[in-house]
Amino acid sequence: MTGAHSLLTDASIGATHVLLWGARAAVEIRCPGPGVLRVRHAPSSAVTSFTHPEQPPKHSFAVVADGALPLSARREGDTLHVSAEGASLEVSLAAGTWIFSDAEGRALARSEAVSGQVRPAFPVDELRSRLSLAAPPGEAYLGFGEKVGPLDKRGLRFTFWNTDAFPPHVESDPLYASIPFFIALRGGVAWGLFLDEPWRSEVDIALNDPTRIEWESRGPELDVYLLAGPHPADVLRRYAALTGRPAMPPLWSLGAHQSRWGYETEDDVRGVVRGYRSRGLPLDVVHLDIDYMDAYRVWTWDRSRFPDPARLARELAAEGVKLVTIVDPGIKADEGYAVYDEARARDYLVRLPRGGPLVGEVWPDPAVFPDLTREEVQRWWGDLQKPFVDAGIAGIWNDMNEPACFSVRPDRGLPAPSGGRTAGLGAIEGSTLPDDARHGARRHLEVHNVYGLGMSRATHEGLARHAPERRPFVLTRAAFAGIQRYAAVWTGDFASNFTHLEASIPMLIGLGLSGVPFVGADIPGFTGRANGELLVRWMQAGLFYPLMRNHAARGRPAQEPWRFGEPYLGLARAALERRYRLLPALYTLMHEAAETGIPVLRPLSFAAPGDPEALHAFDQLLFGGDLLVAPVVRPGQSKRLVYLPAGAWMDFANLERAGSVEQGGRHVIADAPLGVVPVWLRAGGAVALTAPRMHTTSASWEEITWHVHAAERVSGRLYEDEGDGHGASRVTRVEGGLDGATFALERSATGDLPLAREVETIRVHGVPAPRSVVGARSRRAIDGGVEVEVAADWQRIELQLS
Ligand code: GLC
Hints:
Elements: E1 10-13, E2 17-21, E3 25-33, E4 36-43, E5 72-76, E6 79-84, E7 87-92, E8 98-102, E9 107-110, E10 129-134, E11 140-143, E12 156-160, E13 177-178, E14 181-186, E15 189-195, E16 201-205, E17 212-217, E18 222-228, H1 232-243, E19 256-258, H2 266-278, E20 285-288, H3 309-318, E21 322-327, E22 331-332, H4 338-345, E23 360-361, E24 367-368, H5 375-384, H6 386-390, E25 395-398, E26 407-408, E27 420-422, E28 426-428, E29 438-439, E30 442-443, H7 444-447, H8 451-466, E31 474-476, E32 479-480, E33 488-490, H9 498-512, E34 519-520, H10 532-542, E35 548-550, H11 568-596, E36 601-602, H12 612-616, E37 621-623, E38 627-629, E39 639-644, E40 648-651, E41 661-663, E42 666-671, E43 679-682, E44 685-689, E45 705-709, E46 714-721, E47 729-739, E48 742-751, E49 759-765, E50 770-774, E51 778-782, E52 785-791, E53 796-801
Parallel strand pairs: 13-32, 19-20, 19-35, 20-21, 21-25, 25-31, 31-33, 33-34, 44-46, 45-49
Antiparallel strand pairs: 1-2, 2-3, 3-4, 4-18, 5-6, 6-7, 7-8, 8-9, 10-17, 11-14, 12-16, 14-15, 15-18, 16-17, 22-24, 23-26, 27-28, 29-30, 36-37, 37-38, 38-43, 39-42, 40-41, 40-43, 44-45, 46-47, 47-48, 48-53, 49-52, 50-53, 51-52
Alpha-D-glucopyranose binds at residues 261, 289-290, 326, 399, 477, 492-493, 526, 551.
């Protein structure tokens, strides 16, 4: 079909796929959904059948979309043009390189030959494959999962290898989760790339060569998905359609969580709940760390310290508090212990390359590892939690699931040096299992990064099976692309210092930009020693984290909100109360995330994709579309520099002040003494808040106040349901705006959930005192606006402004 020196010499073109191949390499192109192309690069040895050539089917752990939209292909000289709905690809047959364009014909991504070599773009051999992409000047790269650094990762290099990084530092890489996906942004236009390879890989983002991104995988192929924008939200929508929409969590899991490695007895737990309630502090969840287990045997209780978990769960339920237990994958190798005996008998364990189960050391020692990458093992594991569900345990916290393994026998006691070789076991990277350990027919090197995903899936699906009337809550440390279907992710063992507080913001936004909306970091850091100021500042930032959990390491000073005395306790209470006021807005955003994949925490670039200042403001965030939050993340500060993107923004500090309106597109200095978290409300924004409570009950709110920043166009949304389960729901929309001297707002609602309130309050900010108000029961002047009370099923209000 083309010259002898071409990489791709043959083609097979079907209705929904194009396969190109030559002596060394093959490329298969498919369209799994609008605006998305799959370009699977493989060695040509992988192409099967001469008469109907195709690449063998592949099991993806991440991708759930199974659509195949029609493709059309046309050849012009050395180029094959492939087009599909919303995207097209131009492949150079000689070089095997391609250009990806969107529906408007904008060239978004370009693959290249590997730098400095006259080699095809994706040399493939048994051990490595490489992708080289153009990195045009000024293009920013966001996402890559749980990664350090600012939002734009240009100039950094990352490894995808889930790692128990202890203690993690602000420059540590890799960390616990690997999501080989990024969103590129140039001139306000976004596109995305997902490398569906669980194998260990490394990406160099224009560091080694400022004009290229180079991605190298230890696996034999490169399964690349290219996603069109043009807005970053469009890329995320397509990514969620591909890898699965986030699970909608129960409301209680959005309340405050308290945890500590070191709640050793039932009485410790009761004391924590008493500590909260006696000080009037909101709380929904207590986590039990590994202390509850019988000698670290997973799925057991130490009955001398936790004699009756079901009774404890009932007692706590009376205070509105739920219990979540930690579960680690390592199984104590201990004959007579049912979980171990069964796993062995059923051949469910990770094995040595030759011979029996691999034995290592984690908290249990010796320990073996269930092969949670296999579906039958996942199902078994998910069923092991039934007694926990029956005892009233509300959710499961999956830890050490990289999987962490401190040492592998026969080298017990000697941590395997990173990249080292251990007698008879081959290479081990970090504290985990050897590359050559066996997961059924697969090597550990291939499935290491999806072990935590498999464990979370087992947990999530097990909870759904054993408590079908509830929505599962699973928290995980290790993750891979697709984890959003099953679990929330927290950032592991952050230290109690301001540097890690600051680092949490771009990292959590980065996770959201990698498809994972339900995220949090330990407040106020896990290791080290926090002080009262750090606690307060971290809670002020953390009240906007989708997961708000206070957690502390064993042997470190206790960090519950009352451990630092006043004024910190009072300020911590205020932060918790703000969190509970925010719940209707947070719940609505989680629901939006579950429907679309668009995260709760967003970079400022969402509001201003073409504005470089917005991109670089990485210690600020957008909470949904309407609130801009700039928490203080440095010690001793009472003011901070804030970038406001274009538009008008009302000072809404602490979610209560109705302050001055600033024009954006510039920096402002916010007043932020210790009691203040700077927040702004976007002109046109309408956010529903409620009154603080000691714990959640239902997301059918009895009290709702809409905070509206008047503009020509205003819109807001509120999602409500019972807070758990799969029953009735309601979506309320408010729409309207300023028209001359009139400000009008209309409400419409869909869904079958009855209203739980009689009235609603609407605070319209940014308008002069109205001459008359139509549609309200009462009105009251507030600073820079008016507050009206309306019947809960109001239809329309109209303010005549003088
Ligand atoms: C790991 C977890 C931490 C937990 C500890 C003990 O370090 O990251 O959250 O407290 O193990 O289980």
